[in-house]
Write a structure and sequence with these properties.
binds ligand MTE, 15% strand, 2 domains, alpha+beta, Sulfite Oxidase, Chain A, domain 2, 389 residues, binds molybdenum atom, 47% helix, five-stranded mixed beta sheet
Length: 389
Amino acid sequence: MVRDLGAGLRRIAERIPEPGDFRSPLRSVRLTTVLGIALGVAFGVCFLTGVLSHFIQHPPFWFRWPSRPVGLYRFTQGLHVATGLATVPLLGAKLWSVYPRLFVRPPLHGLRHAAERLAIAALVAAALFQVVSGVLNVARWYAPMPFFFTAGHYWIAWLAVGALLVHLGVQLPVVRAALRRPAPAGADGIGRRQVLVAVGAAAGVVTLATIGQTVRPLAAVSVLAPRRPGTGPQGLPVNKTAAAAGVGPAALDPAYRLVLAGFGRSITLSRTDLDAMPQHTAALPIACVEGWSATGTWSGVRLRDLVALVGGDPAGCEAVIESLEAAGRYRMSVLPGPHLADDLTLLALRLGGEPLDLDHGFPARIIAPNRPGVLQTKWVGRITVRRTR
Ligand SMILES: Nc1nc2c(c(=O)[nH]1)N[C@H]1C(S)=C(S)[C@@H](COP(=O)(O)O)O[C@H]1N2
Ligand SMILES: [Mo]
Protein backbone atom coordinates (compact mmCIF):
# COMPACT_ATOMS: atom_id res chain seq x y z
CA MET A 1 0.00 0.00 0.00
CA VAL A 2 2.69 2.46 1.15
CA ARG A 3 4.94 1.21 -1.60
CA ASP A 4 2.14 1.74 -4.15
CA LEU A 5 1.70 5.31 -2.93
CA GLY A 6 5.45 5.95 -3.19
CA ALA A 7 5.52 4.55 -6.71
CA GLY A 8 2.49 6.67 -7.68
CA LEU A 9 4.07 9.86 -6.37
CA ARG A 10 7.30 9.03 -8.18
CA ARG A 11 5.37 8.54 -11.40
CA ILE A 12 3.64 11.92 -10.97
CA ALA A 13 7.01 13.56 -10.24
CA GLU A 14 8.46 12.02 -13.38
CA ARG A 15 5.67 13.52 -15.40
CA ILE A 16 6.44 17.09 -14.24
CA PRO A 17 8.13 18.53 -17.31
CA GLU A 18 11.63 19.98 -17.26
CA PRO A 19 11.98 23.59 -18.50
CA GLY A 20 13.87 22.13 -21.47
CA ASP A 21 10.73 20.23 -22.54
CA PHE A 22 9.00 23.54 -23.28
CA ARG A 23 11.81 24.94 -25.37
CA SER A 24 10.18 26.71 -28.27
CA PRO A 25 12.04 28.76 -30.88
CA LEU A 26 9.33 31.36 -30.35
CA ARG A 27 10.10 32.06 -26.70
CA SER A 28 12.85 34.46 -25.79
CA VAL A 29 13.72 36.93 -23.08
CA ARG A 30 13.31 39.69 -25.64
CA LEU A 31 9.79 38.58 -26.61
CA THR A 32 8.80 38.36 -22.93
CA THR A 33 10.29 41.83 -22.40
CA VAL A 34 8.36 43.43 -25.26
CA LEU A 35 5.11 41.73 -24.16
CA GLY A 36 5.82 42.80 -20.58
CA ILE A 37 6.27 46.44 -21.57
CA ALA A 38 3.04 46.46 -23.63
CA LEU A 39 1.19 44.77 -20.78
CA GLY A 40 2.69 47.17 -18.24
CA VAL A 41 1.59 50.22 -20.25
CA ALA A 42 -1.95 48.88 -20.78
CA PHE A 43 -2.21 47.85 -17.14
CA GLY A 44 -0.83 51.19 -15.93
CA VAL A 45 -3.35 53.21 -17.93
CA CYS A 46 -6.12 50.86 -16.80
CA PHE A 47 -5.06 51.22 -13.16
CA LEU A 48 -4.89 55.03 -13.20
CA THR A 49 -8.24 55.47 -14.97
CA GLY A 50 -9.75 52.89 -12.60
CA VAL A 51 -8.51 54.66 -9.45
CA LEU A 52 -9.83 57.92 -10.91
CA SER A 53 -13.28 56.37 -11.43
CA HIS A 54 -13.22 55.06 -7.87
CA PHE A 55 -12.30 58.49 -6.45
CA ILE A 56 -15.10 60.18 -8.42
CA GLN A 57 -17.59 57.75 -6.89
CA HIS A 58 -16.08 57.71 -3.39
CA PRO A 59 -14.22 61.01 -3.13
CA PRO A 60 -11.54 61.30 -0.41
CA PHE A 61 -11.65 64.69 1.33
CA TRP A 62 -8.85 66.15 -0.83
CA PHE A 63 -10.31 65.06 -4.15
CA ARG A 64 -12.14 67.49 -6.49
CA TRP A 65 -13.59 66.40 -9.82
CA PRO A 66 -14.67 69.20 -12.20
CA SER A 67 -17.90 69.27 -14.20
CA ARG A 68 -16.03 70.10 -17.42
CA PRO A 69 -15.00 68.99 -19.99
CA VAL A 70 -18.42 67.44 -20.40
CA GLY A 71 -17.20 64.11 -21.82
CA LEU A 72 -13.95 63.63 -19.84
CA TYR A 73 -15.28 60.76 -17.73
CA ARG A 74 -16.73 59.16 -20.82
CA PHE A 75 -13.18 59.20 -22.25
CA THR A 76 -11.32 58.03 -19.13
CA GLN A 77 -13.76 55.21 -18.42
CA GLY A 78 -13.91 54.18 -22.07
CA LEU A 79 -10.10 54.03 -21.93
CA HIS A 80 -10.22 52.01 -18.68
CA VAL A 81 -12.40 49.31 -20.17
CA ALA A 82 -10.61 49.34 -23.56
CA THR A 83 -7.12 48.96 -22.01
CA GLY A 84 -8.50 46.34 -19.63
CA LEU A 85 -9.90 44.29 -22.51
CA ALA A 86 -6.65 44.70 -24.50
CA THR A 87 -4.76 43.09 -21.61
CA VAL A 88 -6.65 39.81 -22.20
CA PRO A 89 -4.55 38.71 -25.22
CA LEU A 90 -1.43 40.46 -23.88
CA LEU A 91 -1.63 38.69 -20.52
CA GLY A 92 -2.31 35.36 -22.23
CA ALA A 93 0.77 35.73 -24.45
CA LYS A 94 2.96 36.94 -21.59
CA LEU A 95 2.02 33.97 -19.42
CA TRP A 96 2.61 31.60 -22.34
CA SER A 97 6.07 33.11 -22.87
CA VAL A 98 7.20 32.42 -19.29
CA TYR A 99 5.16 29.47 -18.00
CA PRO A 100 7.99 26.90 -18.36
CA ARG A 101 9.70 28.78 -15.54
CA LEU A 102 6.93 27.54 -13.29
CA PHE A 103 8.75 24.20 -13.34
CA VAL A 104 12.34 25.30 -12.67
CA ARG A 105 14.14 23.07 -10.21
CA PRO A 106 14.85 23.34 -7.43
CA PRO A 107 11.54 25.17 -7.02
CA LEU A 108 13.06 27.40 -4.32
CA HIS A 109 16.68 28.26 -3.70
CA GLY A 110 17.14 30.81 -1.02
CA LEU A 111 15.00 33.49 0.54
CA ARG A 112 15.37 35.98 -2.30
CA HIS A 113 14.16 33.45 -4.86
CA ALA A 114 11.24 32.50 -2.62
CA ALA A 115 10.23 36.17 -2.27
CA GLU A 116 10.46 36.66 -6.02
CA ARG A 117 8.28 33.66 -6.72
CA LEU A 118 5.74 34.76 -4.13
CA ALA A 119 5.53 38.22 -5.75
CA ILE A 120 5.05 36.62 -9.17
CA ALA A 121 2.35 34.28 -7.83
CA ALA A 122 0.54 37.28 -6.32
CA LEU A 123 0.95 39.25 -9.55
CA VAL A 124 -0.39 36.48 -11.79
CA ALA A 125 -3.30 35.74 -9.46
CA ALA A 126 -4.20 39.43 -9.10
CA ALA A 127 -3.87 40.14 -12.84
CA LEU A 128 -6.08 37.15 -13.74
CA PHE A 129 -8.61 38.20 -11.10
CA GLN A 130 -8.76 41.76 -12.48
CA VAL A 131 -9.16 40.66 -16.09
CA VAL A 132 -11.78 38.00 -15.33
CA SER A 133 -13.85 40.11 -12.91
CA GLY A 134 -13.66 43.11 -15.28
CA VAL A 135 -14.90 41.08 -18.24
CA LEU A 136 -17.67 39.56 -16.09
CA ASN A 137 -18.76 43.07 -15.06
CA VAL A 138 -18.80 44.33 -18.64
CA ALA A 139 -20.94 41.29 -19.46
CA ARG A 140 -23.08 42.03 -16.37
CA TRP A 141 -22.66 38.42 -15.23
CA TYR A 142 -22.41 38.57 -11.46
CA ALA A 143 -23.28 34.98 -10.58
CA PRO A 144 -19.63 33.74 -10.57
CA MET A 145 -18.59 36.62 -8.27
CA PRO A 146 -19.53 35.91 -4.64
CA PHE A 147 -18.26 39.39 -3.60
CA PHE A 148 -19.21 42.99 -4.38
CA PHE A 149 -17.52 43.53 -7.74
CA THR A 150 -16.52 47.19 -7.23
CA ALA A 151 -14.80 46.61 -3.88
CA GLY A 152 -13.01 43.43 -5.02
CA HIS A 153 -11.87 44.95 -8.31
CA TYR A 154 -10.58 48.07 -6.53
CA TRP A 155 -8.60 46.44 -3.74
CA ILE A 156 -7.09 43.67 -5.87
CA ALA A 157 -5.91 46.42 -8.27
CA TRP A 158 -3.66 47.78 -5.51
CA LEU A 159 -2.35 44.28 -4.82
CA ALA A 160 -1.62 43.87 -8.54
CA VAL A 161 0.19 47.19 -8.76
CA GLY A 162 2.27 46.46 -5.65
CA ALA A 163 3.27 43.04 -6.99
CA LEU A 164 3.95 44.58 -10.41
CA LEU A 165 6.34 47.15 -8.91
CA VAL A 166 8.25 44.41 -7.05
CA HIS A 167 8.38 42.35 -10.26
CA LEU A 168 9.61 45.36 -12.24
CA GLY A 169 12.30 46.10 -9.66
CA VAL A 170 13.55 42.51 -9.82
CA GLN A 171 13.40 42.22 -13.61
CA LEU A 172 14.73 45.67 -14.55
CA PRO A 173 18.30 44.45 -15.21
CA VAL A 174 16.95 41.62 -17.40
CA VAL A 175 14.72 44.05 -19.29
CA ARG A 176 17.59 46.50 -19.83
CA ALA A 177 19.90 43.78 -21.11
CA ALA A 178 17.22 42.35 -23.41
CA LEU A 179 16.50 45.75 -24.93
CA ARG A 180 20.17 46.54 -25.42
CA ARG A 181 20.80 43.33 -27.37
CA PRO A 182 19.91 43.65 -31.07
CA ALA A 183 16.81 41.72 -32.17
CA PRO A 184 17.80 38.23 -33.32
CA ALA A 185 17.88 37.87 -37.10
CA GLY A 186 17.02 34.88 -39.24
CA ALA A 187 14.15 32.44 -39.02
CA ASP A 188 14.03 32.74 -35.23
CA GLY A 189 13.64 36.51 -35.31
CA ILE A 190 10.88 36.33 -37.90
CA GLY A 191 9.03 33.71 -35.85
CA ARG A 192 9.12 35.85 -32.74
CA ARG A 193 8.13 38.93 -34.66
CA GLN A 194 5.14 36.99 -35.97
CA VAL A 195 4.13 36.16 -32.40
CA LEU A 196 4.22 39.87 -31.55
CA VAL A 197 2.25 40.78 -34.67
CA ALA A 198 -0.34 38.10 -33.85
CA VAL A 199 -0.69 39.28 -30.23
CA GLY A 200 -0.90 42.90 -31.38
CA ALA A 201 -3.54 41.94 -33.94
CA ALA A 202 -5.53 40.04 -31.29
CA ALA A 203 -5.44 43.07 -28.99
CA GLY A 204 -6.53 45.25 -31.93
CA VAL A 205 -9.43 42.95 -32.79
CA VAL A 206 -10.61 42.86 -29.16
CA THR A 207 -10.46 46.66 -29.05
CA LEU A 208 -12.29 47.15 -32.36
CA ALA A 209 -14.90 44.59 -31.39
CA THR A 210 -15.81 46.51 -28.23
CA ILE A 211 -14.74 50.17 -28.55
CA GLY A 212 -17.95 51.00 -30.46
CA GLN A 213 -19.79 50.94 -27.14
CA THR A 214 -18.21 54.31 -26.45
CA VAL A 215 -16.80 55.51 -29.82
CA ARG A 216 -20.12 55.46 -31.63
CA PRO A 217 -18.86 55.75 -35.24
CA LEU A 218 -17.16 52.37 -34.71
CA ALA A 219 -20.32 50.73 -33.39
CA ALA A 220 -20.91 48.92 -36.69
CA VAL A 221 -17.73 46.82 -36.32
CA SER A 222 -18.04 46.36 -32.56
CA VAL A 223 -19.82 43.03 -32.68
CA LEU A 224 -18.86 42.15 -29.08
CA ALA A 225 -19.95 45.44 -27.50
CA PRO A 226 -22.63 44.50 -24.98
CA ARG A 227 -24.43 47.84 -25.37
CA ARG A 228 -25.02 48.70 -29.02
CA PRO A 229 -26.52 52.06 -29.95
CA GLY A 230 -30.21 52.14 -30.67
CA THR A 231 -30.92 49.50 -28.01
CA GLY A 232 -33.37 50.46 -25.31
CA PRO A 233 -36.25 52.91 -25.26
CA GLN A 234 -35.65 56.36 -26.82
CA GLY A 235 -32.48 54.98 -28.42
CA LEU A 236 -30.54 54.74 -25.15
CA PRO A 237 -29.47 51.57 -23.29
CA VAL A 238 -31.02 50.84 -19.89
CA ASN A 239 -29.10 49.23 -17.04
CA LYS A 240 -31.83 48.95 -14.45
CA THR A 241 -35.44 48.94 -15.58
CA ALA A 242 -38.27 50.45 -13.55
CA ALA A 243 -39.64 46.93 -13.07
CA ALA A 244 -36.31 45.67 -11.68
CA ALA A 245 -36.13 48.70 -9.35
CA GLY A 246 -39.76 48.21 -8.29
CA VAL A 247 -40.58 51.88 -8.81
CA GLY A 248 -43.39 51.63 -11.39
CA PRO A 249 -46.38 52.46 -9.12
CA ALA A 250 -44.64 55.32 -7.26
CA ALA A 251 -43.20 56.83 -10.44
CA LEU A 252 -46.51 56.73 -12.34
CA ASP A 253 -48.64 57.89 -9.39
CA PRO A 254 -50.38 61.22 -10.28
CA ALA A 255 -49.82 62.19 -6.63
CA TYR A 256 -46.02 62.19 -7.24
CA ARG A 257 -44.31 65.17 -5.63
CA LEU A 258 -40.64 66.03 -5.66
CA VAL A 259 -39.49 66.93 -2.14
CA LEU A 260 -36.92 69.73 -2.16
CA ALA A 261 -35.33 70.31 1.23
CA GLY A 262 -32.56 72.49 2.61
CA PHE A 263 -31.73 75.25 5.07
CA GLY A 264 -34.54 74.20 7.38
CA ARG A 265 -37.08 74.45 4.60
CA SER A 266 -38.92 71.83 2.60
CA ILE A 267 -41.11 72.34 -0.46
CA THR A 268 -42.95 69.91 -2.70
CA LEU A 269 -43.22 70.22 -6.48
CA SER A 270 -45.57 68.34 -8.79
CA ARG A 271 -44.66 67.49 -12.39
CA THR A 272 -46.83 70.46 -13.41
CA ASP A 273 -44.86 72.76 -11.07
CA LEU A 274 -41.60 71.48 -12.57
CA ASP A 275 -42.90 71.95 -16.13
CA ALA A 276 -43.82 75.56 -15.26
CA MET A 277 -40.21 76.40 -14.29
CA PRO A 278 -37.70 77.64 -16.93
CA GLN A 279 -36.75 74.66 -19.13
CA HIS A 280 -33.25 74.03 -20.48
CA THR A 281 -31.78 71.50 -22.89
CA ALA A 282 -28.37 69.77 -22.77
CA ALA A 283 -26.80 67.07 -24.95
CA LEU A 284 -25.00 64.90 -22.40
CA PRO A 285 -23.79 61.31 -22.29
CA ILE A 286 -24.66 58.54 -19.91
CA ALA A 287 -21.18 57.09 -19.34
CA CYS A 288 -21.56 53.80 -17.52
CA VAL A 289 -18.67 52.46 -15.46
CA GLU A 290 -19.03 49.25 -17.49
CA GLY A 291 -17.58 51.13 -20.46
CA TRP A 292 -20.61 51.84 -22.62
CA SER A 293 -21.71 55.41 -23.17
CA ALA A 294 -24.37 57.14 -25.22
CA THR A 295 -25.44 60.75 -25.68
CA GLY A 296 -29.02 61.93 -25.24
CA THR A 297 -30.69 65.31 -25.62
CA TRP A 298 -32.15 65.97 -22.20
CA SER A 299 -34.40 68.82 -21.12
CA GLY A 300 -35.75 69.90 -17.78
CA VAL A 301 -35.01 72.16 -14.86
CA ARG A 302 -31.54 73.38 -13.88
CA LEU A 303 -30.39 72.05 -10.53
CA ARG A 304 -29.08 75.53 -9.62
CA ASP A 305 -32.59 76.93 -10.10
CA LEU A 306 -33.92 74.31 -7.67
CA VAL A 307 -31.19 75.18 -5.15
CA ALA A 308 -32.21 78.85 -5.46
CA LEU A 309 -35.81 77.88 -4.59
CA VAL A 310 -34.67 76.89 -1.09
CA GLY A 311 -32.40 79.93 -0.92
CA GLY A 312 -28.96 78.33 -1.42
CA ASP A 313 -25.90 79.42 -3.36
CA PRO A 314 -25.01 76.37 -5.49
CA ALA A 315 -21.26 77.08 -5.39
CA GLY A 316 -21.07 76.52 -1.63
CA CYS A 317 -23.48 73.57 -1.52
CA GLU A 318 -23.89 69.97 -2.44
CA ALA A 319 -27.12 68.06 -2.97
CA VAL A 320 -28.13 64.59 -1.86
CA ILE A 321 -30.30 62.99 -4.53
CA GLU A 322 -32.64 60.20 -3.49
CA SER A 323 -34.62 57.93 -5.76
CA LEU A 324 -38.16 56.62 -5.32
CA GLU A 325 -36.40 53.24 -5.48
CA ALA A 326 -36.75 51.88 -1.94
CA ALA A 327 -33.53 49.84 -1.86
CA GLY A 328 -30.59 49.29 -4.18
CA ARG A 329 -27.00 50.43 -4.29
CA TYR A 330 -27.63 53.28 -6.72
CA ARG A 331 -30.78 54.78 -5.22
CA MET A 332 -28.76 57.74 -3.87
CA SER A 333 -26.01 60.02 -5.11
CA VAL A 334 -24.35 63.28 -4.10
CA LEU A 335 -24.05 66.18 -6.55
CA PRO A 336 -20.92 68.12 -5.53
CA GLY A 337 -20.59 71.93 -5.81
CA PRO A 338 -19.07 72.18 -9.31
CA HIS A 339 -21.80 69.96 -10.78
CA LEU A 340 -24.57 71.65 -8.82
CA ALA A 341 -23.50 75.08 -10.11
CA ASP A 342 -23.05 73.94 -13.72
CA ASP A 343 -25.70 75.25 -16.15
CA LEU A 344 -25.80 71.85 -17.87
CA THR A 345 -26.81 69.92 -14.77
CA LEU A 346 -30.52 69.16 -15.07
CA LEU A 347 -33.32 67.46 -13.32
CA ALA A 348 -34.33 65.98 -16.68
CA LEU A 349 -38.02 65.62 -17.48
CA ARG A 350 -37.66 64.87 -21.18
CA LEU A 351 -35.35 62.92 -23.48
CA GLY A 352 -35.21 63.69 -27.21
CA GLY A 353 -38.18 66.03 -26.81
CA GLU A 354 -40.50 63.34 -25.39
CA PRO A 355 -41.36 62.73 -21.75
CA LEU A 356 -38.73 60.45 -20.15
CA ASP A 357 -39.38 56.78 -20.64
CA LEU A 358 -40.20 55.07 -17.33
CA ASP A 359 -36.96 53.04 -17.69
CA HIS A 360 -34.92 56.23 -18.12
CA GLY A 361 -36.19 57.66 -14.85
CA PHE A 362 -39.71 59.12 -15.31
CA PRO A 363 -40.92 61.40 -13.77
CA ALA A 364 -37.49 63.04 -13.23
CA ARG A 365 -33.82 62.01 -13.30
CA ILE A 366 -30.44 63.62 -12.77
CA ILE A 367 -28.22 64.29 -15.76
CA ALA A 368 -24.94 66.12 -15.13
CA PRO A 369 -21.81 66.66 -17.24
CA ASN A 370 -18.60 64.67 -16.68
CA ARG A 371 -20.06 62.13 -14.28
CA PRO A 372 -20.30 58.31 -14.09
CA GLY A 373 -23.62 56.74 -15.10
CA VAL A 374 -24.11 55.25 -11.63
CA LEU A 375 -24.42 58.77 -10.23
CA GLN A 376 -27.09 59.86 -12.76
CA THR A 377 -29.89 58.94 -10.39
CA LYS A 378 -33.25 57.96 -11.92
CA TRP A 379 -36.80 58.33 -10.52
CA VAL A 380 -35.77 61.22 -8.24
CA GLY A 381 -38.07 61.62 -5.23
CA ARG A 382 -36.09 63.89 -2.94
CA ILE A 383 -33.32 66.48 -3.22
CA THR A 384 -31.64 67.71 -0.04
CA VAL A 385 -29.36 70.74 -0.36
CA ARG A 386 -26.70 71.29 2.29
CA ARG A 387 -23.89 73.77 2.74
CA THR A 388 -20.29 72.55 2.34
CA ARG A 389 -18.52 75.72 3.42
N1 LIG B 1 -32.37 54.96 -8.99
C1 LIG B 1 -31.42 54.45 -9.79
N2 LIG B 1 -30.79 55.25 -10.67
C2 LIG B 1 -29.83 54.76 -11.50
C3 LIG B 1 -29.48 53.39 -11.47
C4 LIG B 1 -30.14 52.56 -10.53
O1 LIG B 1 -29.89 51.35 -10.43
N3 LIG B 1 -31.13 53.13 -9.72
N4 LIG B 1 -28.50 52.91 -12.32
C5 LIG B 1 -27.49 53.90 -12.77
C6 LIG B 1 -26.60 53.40 -13.81
S1 LIG B 1 -25.50 52.21 -13.35
C7 LIG B 1 -26.56 53.93 -15.07
S2 LIG B 1 -25.36 53.51 -16.17
C8 LIG B 1 -27.58 54.89 -15.53
C9 LIG B 1 -28.25 54.40 -16.79
O2 LIG B 1 -29.24 55.27 -17.20
P1 LIG B 1 -30.25 54.84 -18.36
O3 LIG B 1 -30.87 53.54 -17.94
O4 LIG B 1 -31.22 55.94 -18.53
O5 LIG B 1 -29.40 54.64 -19.61
O6 LIG B 1 -28.58 55.11 -14.55
C10 LIG B 1 -28.12 55.21 -13.22
N5 LIG B 1 -29.22 55.61 -12.38
MO1 LIG C 1 -23.84 52.17 -14.97
